[in-house]
Design goal:
This protein is α+β, with helices and mostly antiparallel strands. The protein is built from 9 helices and 14 strands. The longest helix has 15 residues.
């Protein structure tokens, strides 16, 4: 769910889009009016959003604004230290790991993945890691298969290979490398590829390569149904109104979105990544090779790019599992925002307020 809706495109329930660069000379405006952003967030809650955590980094100043409830039953307010499921933002973390392995010459992005996973994909001899990272493999998204419905059976345990089989039970949407279609299936395959190459479980790989080096103490790769520590409850909407869907088995998204984190940890990760402290320069440049999708949007290798009237921002977005998330940072690194909401069912009336918050953050006016 793209909370800021700067651009829209067809997407699965677990993905949002990004857009291309603005005209030359565009730049970020003056200091962020935090009171005005707070008012926009409060208005979004008044429009039906349960709770919001919104981090703004403006130069050296970092502020976390909150509004609404982390738990609507107890009315406990959202705090800066609440954990949320970050959904597809996790794709940037996994893409970073794959690019690290490339930099270590342990894989080639352009070698068919069937070399390492020979029995997994019917077309594994044609599909590369680069295509999986950039959603150009043609693999059908398992989240679009009617047999996959985590809202109906949220505690079901899925094996990664079963998620892949859901996707590959459908024909390729196009010949690999000739089109674009967002595919969670592709990121499940990448997770299996990382496990095969490293000989470690994905949870261990995330911890060793990303979480510990960056001291992301409030982030972890989820297994099972619970969210550890202080956290926001997640909500969906059904015929009875808001439904608490906090307890959901993380295997439903696994490598495509099973990270849990705070807004502060997500901000730290993207600042380090885009600041060149996580990947060698060549791999970071590869990540930033954005594909023009023909509708004003684009996607790199696990990284999105969005255009505001005054700035270009890089990051990723996510939605599903009772949560919606967005992370964006200006190309020059001067300004950053991370927003978490504890529902994937954003009321239409709330979107204008998220748009206002984004324009205030990056442009200085709503």
């Amino acid at each position: 769910m793209n909370l800021w809706r700067i651009a829209t495109a067809a997407a699965s329930s677990l993905v949002l889009t990004a857009v291309l660069a603005p005209p030359a000379g565009a730049g970020v405006a003056g200091r962020v009016d935090l009171a005005a952003v707070q008012q926009a967030l409060d208005q979004a809650v008044a429009a039906g959003v349960p709770g919001i955590a919104y981090l703004i980094r403006d130069g050296a100043r970092t502020t976390v604004l909150t509004s609404g409830a982390a738990n609507v039953s107890t009315h406990r307010p959202v705090t800066a230290n609440d954990r949320f499921r970050i959904a597809s933002i996790a794709k940037t973390y996994l893409a970073t790991i794959v690019l690290q392995l490339e930099s270590e010459h342990r894989l080639s992005l352009d070698t068919p993945v069937g070399r390492w996973l020979p029995a997994l994909l019917p077309d594994g001899d044609k599909i590369t890691a680069r295509q999986l990272l950039g959603h150009t493999s043609g693999l059908f998204d398992y989240a679009e298969d009617p047999r996959f419905n985590y809202l109906t059976d949220p505690l079901r345990v899925w094996k990664p290979v079963d998620l892949v089989r859901l996707g590959t039970s459908h024909p390729l949407l196009f010949a690999p490398g000739t089109g674009f279609a967002y595919s969670n299936t592709g990121y499940i395959v990448l997770g299996l590829l990382v496990e095969r190459i490293t000989g470690q479980q994905l949870e261990q790989v995330f911890d060793r390569r990303i979480l510990r080096p960056l001291s992301l103490r409030h982030t972890y790769f989820a297994t099972g149904t619970a969210i550890r520590g202080r956290h926001a409850h997640g909500y969906t909407v059904d015929a009875t109104g808001l439904r608490d869907i906090t307890r959901i088995d993380a295997s439903a998204v696994w490598a495509a979105g099973a990270l849990i984190a705070t807004v502060g940890d997500v901000a730290t990760f993207f600042r380090a990544l885009l600041g060149g402290r996580v990947l060698p320069a060549h791999q970071l440049a590869e990540m930033k090779q954005f594909r023009d999708l023909g509708d004003g949007s684009g996607y790199g290798l696990g990284l999105m790019r969005q255009q505001y009237p005054c700035a270009v921002v890089l990051g990723h977005t996510g939605g599903g599992l009772g949560f919606s998330t967005d992370s964006a940072q200006t190309v020059d690194g001067a300004r950053q925002a991370v927003v978490f909401v504890n529902t994937e069912a954003i009321p239409e009336a709330a979107y204008q307020w998220f748009q206002n918050a984004a324009r205030l953050t990056f442009c200085g006016s709503a």
